[in-house]
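Exam revision sheet. Question 4 asks you to relate a sequence to its structure. Input first:
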Amino acid sequence: MIKGKLIKVCGMREPDNIRDVEALEEVDLIGFVFHPRSPRRVDEIPSFLPARARRVGVFVDAAQEEIFRTAHRFGLHAIQLHGNESPACCQALRQRGWQVIKAFGIAEEKDLKPTADYDECCDLLLFDTRTPAYGGSGKAFDRRVLRAYEGRTPFLLSGGISPDSIDELHSFEHPRCAGYDLNSRFELYPGRKNTESLRRFLCALGS
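Answer key, structure tokens:
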């Protein structure tokens, strides 16, 4: 954790890369994508799974029983939902003992309106760049839109965060910002992160 902010690295798949990223002490959460159409999809359990960092499973409109099976199989600590999952679905997962992160695509203030329905049933929200399809775009949205967010649930900031985002993140302030989600802009190719780039970024972010 850097200056009270959670750091999540998402889209991990390769055992040695997972081990190296977890070795970065600033990384708190490591995400595994289970959406069938994602280029980062995890099919089999990697030979190394995080032992210190918390494991987050990313799903898109998956059946609850599928989420339950996968979460138990991979020893997940948290479930991140990127589809049209209802507040009731989020609450059901929380009641089974998992932390729940609900993602929302953001481009303008009206995109924040649905978050109000999730205030009582999620541990974290995740604000990503709105795209026509599910999943990240690697592009940033106008962070000023988040001034309109007045919910009680903390959020992770996502969408286009890159090695060049240090000044932006240092200047971004919101009382509910709990941390940052890092993915495609730190990749060598889908599913493999540039550990040295992450290391330099996290060092600069913490300074």
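Marking note for examiners. The helical segments are 15-22, 64-74, 87-95, 166-171, 195-206.
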